[in-house]
Structure to design on (485 residues):
């Protein structure tokens, strides 16, 4: 075929870009004795990518739900953007578990509840203190790439920050909130996102924050990666192993007597003797190895032989299977108060996380009913409560190193010394343990006078400490105090 006979390439297929959706409803709720009237908005916003010499190109649509108190001065009224983690999680957990005007009852007397599930007015909502915007990143909730675009372009650490940051800029502009005090609140990987956004929003959009609230924080991924050669997680998870053993009554009488005192003791052991022993590696003397194993067994409720068999390095996924193996029970990772049952007791790891099993059903059912009936938002595609993105999420610019957004947060505070950070920690959280968070915050290398910008609080519950009503009450009180300050 000659050059003249070569057929022209087919034009790229044209796709119809979806229109943005929005529903608005008005509601009232009584909080702290005050009747609050608010507008609830549920809808989508198109995220666009600017291209040279071309109009901006739509790449994704982000679903959100916002709550705005009416008859208030937007310039004085705080605005809080909220998201969860995963990666791959929708914003439903903070929305219906802690912050919003409705709350899921997911546990009673520290036990899971059976279906059908109950959604009630949230008397603990912080809507009295701040307007709220719940963001579902692309591929979570109802958020999707637009037709013709690939979802994978949003599934990286950097691109996730860019898309969520662009949504925040767009919402702030569209609803005239640039003058409002602005906050972020994230949970789990959402704390990673929040710390990353503290830098991106300042540097790219000139949007300075008043505060960031981190619920079950992970900023330095080295603290939680159980791989050969990285001893740090074994040290930093130990106090949470102890707290878990305490909850399940696996410690001796002296250690069972006072949780706070016991945890301080194990912090000291973990940060000194245990750390030094692991640093010695194979050069650790036999008598010292035996002494450390004895202490680890005492603090974890595991047998000394088992601890020796791990080479003094207890893996979290083995721990949740081993602690109550003789009772044919496993304990939870997100919340180690919960127990589950596997098909047999001889496996190395558990079959499922019983603490996630306790929340998946209640939050899924109540959200789907709530969004369609009370908020009037109709959508037939599935609401992705938790999309399976964890294994495929990319950290392209962090190859051969651990992601550490603590440095981003340090720089953001240094640039904006008015930025305050609140950090909530659950004693029974084996996903993002409290001692790892303490380690991270102690290694920010902030100037001494800026360390007061960071406030850590603790709760006798797990990753989602607000599931336990007593912890919920304390957490909300702490959040209100933080917002007031």
């Amino acid at each position: 075929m000659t050059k003249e006979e070569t057929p022209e390439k087919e034009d790229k297929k044209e796709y119809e870009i979806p229109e943005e959706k929005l529903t608005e409803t008005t509601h009232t709720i009584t909080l702290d004795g005050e009747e609050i009237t608010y507008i609830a908005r549920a809808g989508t916003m198109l995220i666009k990518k600017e291209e040279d010499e071309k109009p901006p190109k739509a790449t994704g649509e982000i679903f959100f739900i916002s709550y705005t108190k009416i008859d208030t001065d937007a310039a004085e009224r705080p605005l809080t953007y909220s998201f969860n983690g995963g990666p791959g999680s929708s914003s439903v957990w903070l929305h219906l578990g802690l912050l919003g005007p409705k709350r899921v009852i997911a546990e009673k007397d520290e036990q899971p509840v059976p279906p059908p599930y109950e959604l009630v007015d949230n008397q603990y909502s912080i809507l009295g203190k701040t307007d709220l915007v719940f963001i579902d990143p692309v591929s979570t909730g109802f958020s999707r790439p637009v037709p013709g675009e690939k979802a994978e372009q949003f599934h990286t650490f950097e691109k996730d920050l860019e898309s969520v940051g662009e949504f925040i800029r767009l919402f702030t502009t569209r609803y005239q909130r640039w003058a409002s005090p602005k906050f972020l609140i994230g949970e789990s990987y959402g704390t990673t996102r929040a710390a990353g956004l503290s830098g991106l929003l300042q540097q790219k959009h000139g949007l300075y924050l008043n505060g960031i609230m981190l619920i079950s924080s992970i900023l330095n991924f080295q603290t939680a990666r159980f791989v050969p050669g990285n001893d740090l997680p074994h040290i930093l998870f130990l106090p949470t192993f102890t707290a878990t053993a305490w909850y399940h009554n696996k410690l001796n009488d002296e250690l069972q007597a006072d949780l706070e005192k016991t945890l301080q003791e194990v912090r000291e052991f973990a940060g000194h003797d245990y750390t030094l022993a692991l640093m010695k590696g194979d050069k650790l003397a036999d008598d010292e190895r035996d002494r450390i194993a004895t202490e680890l067994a005492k603090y974890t409720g595991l047998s000394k032989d088992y601890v020796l068999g791990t080479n003094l390095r207890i893996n979290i996924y083995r721990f949740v299977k081993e602690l109550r193996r003789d009772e044919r029970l496993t304990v939870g990772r997100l919340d180690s108060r919960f127990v589950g049952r596997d098909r047999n007791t001889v496996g190395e790891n558990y079959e499922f996380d019983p603490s996630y099993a306790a929340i998946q059903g209640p939050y899924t059912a109540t959200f789907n009913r709530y969004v369609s009936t009370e908020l009037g938002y109709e959508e037939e595609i599935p609401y992705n409560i938790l999309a399976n993105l964890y294994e495929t999420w990319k950290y392209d610019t962090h190859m051969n190193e651990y992601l550490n957004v603590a440095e981003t947060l340090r720089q953001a505070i240094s640039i904006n010394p008015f930025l305050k950070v609140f950090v909530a920690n659950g004693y029974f959280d084996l996903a993002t343990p409290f001692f790892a968070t303490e380690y991270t915050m102690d290694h920010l290398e902030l100037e001494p006078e800026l360390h007061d910008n960071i406030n850590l609080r603790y709760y006798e519950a797990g990753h989602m400490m607000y599931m336990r009503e007593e912890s919920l009450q304390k957490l909300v009180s702490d959040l209100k105090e933080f917002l007031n300050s």
